[in-house]
C-alpha cells in the first residue's frame, strides 16, 4: 500500500507539488497557515484538511513541508501544535523548503529524539516545473530514508541528486540559487550597458542567449526584465534569504564569496524599494536607481 502523505505549505511551489501527489494517487492530508487556502485547494484536488500540523502527522506516514524559512519548519514540526505531537515513531519528515544546512541539522537532531527520520530535499525549477512535476531535487540524508522517499519525490521531480548527509542538499541548493541570482544581476547590468551604448536591447538579449553567455536565467528572464514585468515566479525576498544562506555556507567553510555578497546588497536594495514580493529580477530596479538610468 502507498504511504499516506501529509503536506504542509500550499504556497506558489507547495500547492503545485502537492497537486502532483494527489494526481499520483496518494492519500494526502494538508495544512496551511491560511485555512481558506487549504480548504479551497483540498476541495479542488480531493485532499483532506487538518486542523493543525499535529493532526496532519497523525494521518500520515510521510510528512512533507514546503514553507518559507527555518523558523517556520521548526514551528510546524516541533512547535506547540507541531507534527511531533501527532506523529508515531518511524515517521519520515521531508523538508522541501530552503532553510540552509545549519537549521536542517538542528531540526533533524531534535526529530531524531522523537524517533522521526528526516531528509532535506530542497528543489529548483520554479513554479512551472513544480506544476508539471519536473523539478530538480537535491537530497541530504541517509540512503535508507531516500529509498523510502524516492517514489514520492519522483512524482514531483525528474532529477534527484543525493548530495550527502543531512544538510548537504540545502548547501547545494543555496549555492545554486546564489549563482542564479548573480546571473540575473549580470544580465541586468549587461542590458543597461547595452541601452547606454544605444544597442538594440532585444537583439542583445537574443545574442546573449545564443552565445556562450547563455543560461536558463537569460532565456527565461531577459524579456521580462526588459519589459519590467515582475510577475512572481520566485519572490525577491526569498532569493535574498537564499543568498544570505549561501553566504553562511561560505563563512562556515572560511572562504569568501564576493559575487554573492554584491548580489545580496542589490537584492536588499530592491527589497527596500518595495519589490520584495515581486519576482527576483526586480533587482534591476536597484541597479537603475544606482545608475540613474532606466532600461
Structure description:
This protein is of the alpha/beta class. The protein contains 13 helices and 9 strands. Strands 3-2-1-4-5-6 form a 6-stranded parallel β-sheet, with helices on both faces. α11 runs antiparallel to α12. It is elongated.
Write the layout of secondary structure elements.
Elements: E1 5-8, H1 14-23, E2 28-31, H2 35-45, E3 48-49, H3 53-58, E4 62-65, H4 70-78, E5 92-95, H5 101-112, E6 117-120, E7 123-124, H6 126-132, E8 135-140, H7 143-156, E9 157-164, H8 168-196, H9 201-210, H10 216-226, H11 236-252, H12 258-275, H13 283-291
Parallel strand pairs: 1-2, 1-4, 2-3, 4-5, 5-6, 8-9
Antiparallel strand pairs: 7-8
Helix pairs in contact: 1-6, 4-5, 8-10, 8-11, 8-12, 8-13, 9-10, 11-12, 12-13
CATH class of the largest domain: Alpha Beta
Helix content: 55-70%
* Distance between the first and last residues' Cα: 56 Å
Give me the CATH superfamily of the largest domain: NAD(P)-binding Rossmann-like Domain
Amino acid at each position: 500500500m502507498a504511504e499516506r502523505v501529509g503536506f504542509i505549505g500550499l504556497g506558489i511551489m507547495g500547492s503545485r507539488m502537492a497537486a502532483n501527489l494527489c494526481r499520483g494517487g496518494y492519500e494526502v492530508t494538508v495544512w496551511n497557515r491560511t485555512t481558506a487556502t487549504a480548504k479551497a485547494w483540498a476541495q479542488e484536488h480531493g485532499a483532506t484538511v487538518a486542523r493543525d500540523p499535529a493532526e496532519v502527522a497523525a494521518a500520515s506516514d510521510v510528512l512533507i513541508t514546503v514553507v518559507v524559512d527555518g523558523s517556520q519548519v521548526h514551528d510546524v514540526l516541533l512547535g506547540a501544535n507541531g507534527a511531533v505531537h501527532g506523529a508515531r515513531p518511524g515517521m519520515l519528515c521531508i523538508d522541501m523548503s530552503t532553510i540552509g544546512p545549519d537549521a536542517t541539522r538542528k531540526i533533524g537532531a531534535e526529530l531524531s529524539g522523537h524517533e522521526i527520520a528526516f531528509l532535506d530535499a530542497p528543489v529548483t525549477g520554479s513554479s512551472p516545473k513544480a506544476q508539471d512535476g519536473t523539478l530538480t531535487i537535491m537530497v541530504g540524508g541517509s540512503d535508507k530514508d531516500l529509498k523510502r522517499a524516492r517514489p514520492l519525490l519522483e512524482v514531483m521531480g525528474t532529477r534527484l541528486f543525493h548530495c550527502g548527509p543531512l544538510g548537504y542538499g540545502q548547501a547545494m541548493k543555496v549555492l545554486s540559487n546564489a549563482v542564479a541570482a548573480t546571473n540575473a544581476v549580470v544580465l541586468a547590468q549587461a542590458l543597461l550597458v547595452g541601452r547606454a551604448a544605444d544597442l538594440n536591447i532585444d537583439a542583445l538579449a537574443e545574442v546573449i542567449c545564443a552565445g556562450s553567455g547563455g543560461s536558463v536565467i537569460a532565456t527565461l528572464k531577459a524579456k521580462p526584465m526588459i519589459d519590467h514585468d515582475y510577475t512572481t515566479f520566485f519572490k525577491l525576498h526569498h532569493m535574498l534569504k537564499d543568498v544570505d544562506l549561501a553566504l553562511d555556507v561560505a563563512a562556515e567553510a572560511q572562504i569568501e564569496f564576493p559575487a554573492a555578497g554584491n548580489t545580496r546588497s542589490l537584492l536588499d536594495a530592491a527589497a527596500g524599494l518595495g519589490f520584495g514580493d515581486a519576482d527576483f529580477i526586480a533587482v534591476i530596479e536597484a541597479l537603475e536607481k544606482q545608475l540613474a538610468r532606466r532600461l
